[in-house]
Amino acid sequence: MTGGDLVRSDVNRVYRGFNADCGERAEQFSAPLVTRPSGADDFIRLSINPGKGAGYWDVARLHDDMLICVAECRYLDPFDYVVSPQSDVLSIRMLVSGELEIADQHGAQVHVQRGAAEITRIPGGHTHELRIQEHERFASLTIHVRADSLVRLMGLGERETPSMLASFEDAEAGFRSCSMPVTPAMAGGVFDLIKAPYAGALRCRFYEAKSMEMLCLFVDAMRQCSGDEPQPGSPSVQALGRVQLARRILEEHLAAPPTVEQLARRVGVNRTRLRHDFKCLFGITIAEFILAQRMERARQLLRDETISIGAVAEAVGYNHAGNFSAAFRRHFGISPRDLRRG
Hints:
Layout: H1 3-14, H2 23-26, E1 29-35, E2 43-48, E3 53-63, E4 66-75, E5 79-83, E6 89-97, E7 100-104, E8 109-112, E9 116-122, E10 128-132, E11 138-146, H3 150-154, H4 163-169, E12 176-181, H5 184-194, H6 200-226, H7 237-252, H8 260-267, H9 271-282, H10 286-301, H11 309-315, H12 321-332, H13 336-341
Antiparallel strand pairs: 1-2, 2-3, 3-4, 4-11, 5-10, 6-9, 6-11, 7-8, 7-10, 9-12
Helix pairs in contact: 5-6, 6-7, 7-8, 7-9
């Protein structure tokens, strides 16, 4: 396999689901310039081929429903690449320098200028082309999220979802876009990502936490543009980012969740503040959330009768099937065995 093929394979692997083939995009880079932090298979740095320009793209696949791109670069010629996601995607961009043009397969065009925060909905299998202008510094954050997962990812209730954002959730919406000014907090966040002093796993965790904060800033800006009133007593935008990250960590470690103290350290806040903000946003305590998630996961696993009840118990963090069965009955009012019989 040639160096170019290695780059293409690497980029396609990280972009899986968000682009069918990154061929032309991958050609802007060469194999020796592709680097990956230790232990981070879904996080790569793509340094631009010196013959094409200078700078880099950091591409991080945070989980199945979310991918981010941090760019700090300059091209010698216009840089074009084609994107064709397999499922409906929302692409949220915060551009602090440079210009970008987006054109869909039916002729619709979007011009994103410096200082714009923009959201585009791309239907699955719908090809569109992006062009970055040459010579000017290009600095941005792009967050790609599956269209049906953003509200869930943010933990937003129906009344908390900005009306402008709700219109982008419509499966019949097709290709569409809107933009608003980048706020000072958004611009600061993009530069924080570009200048992040961390390496390896710490950089991954920083990108994860900062991306949630940036999503909160964007959704909050959409709410203001929509004229929606904030909910009384709502946590700050920064607190929302921390709590959403805490929830994600808990969901990924249900069998052996971190303690509140460990969780608070990981999201960068003290445990008292984390408990308060978590309860304020979700209406339940951290312990209640863990229990509810474990029970729901167990209920799903029990549908597969090839998995023993003991194995289900272990999968959701119980060492003894009896303790699991008792907890399951208290939660659902029915035992795991009776659930299967029904």
